[in-house]
């Protein structure tokens, strides 16, 4: 059984916009161009990505959690964003708390029509993507 590819169909949850502004530029441009990034609105500039989805949030950890979790409308909005996603990468605990109820309950992407958590954060995402790129270039 082969591992499903990462990149297209992957969402990165980075609710801390300032942190998103620091971490996203570190990703390879080609990978970044395939990602959906979910973050809070704000003035922090972000590099180009495939798609940015901004959720309303308020300052501080508690505010971001309430903003992402507190209202059924937000949970429904996150569910719509993740509906076409195969993998979800959460950078920290608040990101995971915001989307965990929307994820597949076990290992494997796409269980019950919901995305799966890709463990290991951004570093693992980049490692898997680089391995896929290497395999595809060596087979041509």
Low-confidence stretches: 59-69
Count of folded domains: 1
What sort of overall outline do the alpha carbons produce when their principal axes are compared?
A: globular
Query: In which order are the strands of the major sheet placed?
Result: 3-2-1-4-5
Helical fraction: 40-55%
Number of distinct beta strands: 5
Q: What is the number of helical segments per DSSP (H or I, 4+ residues)?
A: 6
Largest sheet: 5 strands, parallel
Average pLDDT figure = 81
In N-to-C order, the SSE pattern is EHHEEHHEHEH
End-to-end gap = 21 Å
What features would you describe in this structure?
The protein is α/β, with parallel strands linked by helices. 41% of the residues lie in helices and 14% in strands. The protein has one domain (10-138). The protein contains 6 helices and 5 strands; from the N terminus they run E-H-H-E-E-H-H-E-H-E-H. It has a 5-stranded parallel beta sheet with strand order 3-2-1-4-5, with helices on both faces. Helix 3 runs parallel beside helix 5 (93-99).
């Amino acid at each position: 059984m082969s591992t499903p590819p990462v990149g297209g169909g992957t969402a990165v949850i980075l609710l801390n916009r300032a942190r998103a502004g620091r971490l996203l530029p570190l990703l390879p441009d080609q990978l970044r161009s395939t990602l959906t990034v979910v973050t809070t609105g704000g003035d922090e500039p972000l590099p180009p990505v495939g798609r940015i989805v901004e959720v309303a949030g308020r300052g501080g950890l508690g505010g971001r959690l309430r903003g992402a979790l507190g209202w059924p409308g937000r949970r429904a909005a996150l569910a719509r964003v993740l509906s076409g996603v195969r993998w979800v990468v959460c950078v920290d605990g608040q990101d995971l708390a915001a989307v965990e109820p929307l994820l597949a309950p076990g290992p494997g992407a796409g269980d019950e029509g919901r995305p799966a958590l890709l463990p290991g954060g951004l570093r693992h995402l980049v490692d898997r993507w680089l391995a896929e790129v290497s395999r595809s270039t060596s087979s041509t």
